[in-house]
Design brief:
The complex is a heterodimer of chains A (115) and B (113). Chain A is built from no helices and twelve strands. Chain A is mainly beta. Chain B contains no helices and eleven strands. In chain B, the strands form two sheets. In chain B, strands 2, 4, 5, 6, 9, 10 and 11 form a seven-stranded mixed beta sheet that branches. A four-stranded antiparallel beta sheet of chain B has the order 1-3-8-7, with no helix packed on it. In chain B, β4 and β5 form a beta hairpin. The chains are: A mainly beta (115), B mainly beta (113). At the A-B interface, β5 and β6 of A face β5 and β10 of B.
C-alpha cells in the first residue's frame, strides 16, 4: 500500500527567508509525485509534479522540489518566500503499477509567512 | 472555461436529512473524483469515476452514493446525513493517462447538526 507523510503540520517563516516543506512516501512500485497548494477558502491548485527524468522539478510561483528515490522523499523548497505564499501545501503520490486511479494525499503542511 | 464547479458552496443539514452535491466540469475529462477534507487528515477519496456510467469506491465510501449519468457531471449523495459527515467536500477531474493531474473545484462546506 502507498502512503504519504508530511513531517511538519505547520511551518512558520519570515518573509524573504527560504523554506523547505518535507514529504516522504512509501510505495513498493514506481510513483508519480505531486505538490498542491490550497489558499484559504479555495480548492487545490497544482504547484508541480514529478513524472520522470530530471529529479529537480520546477513549478509555479518560484517553488521547486527534488525527487530522491533512495530516501523516498519529495521535499518542496522556495529560496525566498512572500506573504502571499501563506497557504496549506499537500504532497500526493500516484502508483504507476496498481490497477487503480487513486491519488494518495499527505495530511498537509500549513505555511505561515510573517512580515 | 469555467473548469470544475461545485454546487452549493455551503449547506447546513439536520441529522437524517438528505442532499445531493453537484460537480460539473467543462474540460471533457474522463475521470472525476469526490474527496472530503477534514482537519489534520488531508484529503480522503470517497468515490471516483473513470467514465460516464461508471463509479468506484474510494477510501471512505460509507454513507455516500454517487452517479455519473453524464460525462460532465458527478453527483455525490448523502441519503441520511450524520454529524460525522460535517466536512469540506472537493470534486476533481482529469484527463485519462496516468501523467495527467487532477483539477479541483472550489469546495462545498457541509455542516450536519
Amino acid at each position: 500500500a502507498q502512503s504519504v507523510t508530511q513531517l511538519d503540520s505547520q511551518v512558520p517563516v519570515f518573509e524573504e527567508a527560504p523554506v523547505e516543506l518535507r514529504c516522504n512516501y512509501s510505495s513498493s512500485v514506481s510513483v508519480y509525485l505531486f505538490w498542491y497548494v490550497q489558499y484559504p477558502n479555495q480548492g487545490l491548485q497544482l504547484l508541480l509534479k514529478y513524472l520522470s527524468g530530471s529529479t529537480l522539478v520546477k513549478g509555479i510561483n518560484g517553488f521547486e522540489a527534488e525527487f530522491n528515490k533512495s530516501q523516498t522523499s519529495f521535499h518542496l523548497r522556495k529560496p525566498s518566500v512572500h506573504i502571499s505564499d501563506t497557504a496549506e501545501y499537500f504532497c500526493a503520490v500516484r502508483s504507476l503499477s496498481y490497477n487503480t486511479d487513486k491519488l494518495i494525499f499527505g495530511t498537509g503542511t500549513r505555511l505561515q509567512v510573517f512580515p | 472555461n469555467a473548469g470544475v464547479t461545485q454546487t452549493p458552496k455551503f449547506r447546513v443539514l439536520k441529522t437524517g436529512q438528505s442532499m445531493t452535491l453537484l460537480c460539473a466540469q467543462d474540460m471533457n475529462h474522463e475521470y472525476m473524483y469526490w474527496y472530503r477534507q477534514d482537519p489534520g487528515m488531508g484529503l480522503r477519496l470517497i468515490h471516483y469515476s473513470v467514465g460516464e456510467g461508471t463509479t468506484a469506491k474510494g477510501e471512505v465510501p460509507d454513507g455516500y452514493n454517487v452517479s455519473r449519468l453524464k460525462k460532465q457531471n458527478f453527483l455525490l449523495g448523502l441519503e441520511s446525513a450524520a454529524p460525522s459527515q460535517t466536512s469540506v467536500y472537493f470534486c476533481a477531474s482529469r484527463l485519462s493517462g496516468v501523467n495527467n493531474e487532477q483539477f479541483f473545484g472550489p469546495g462545498t462546506r457541509l455542516t450536519v447538526l
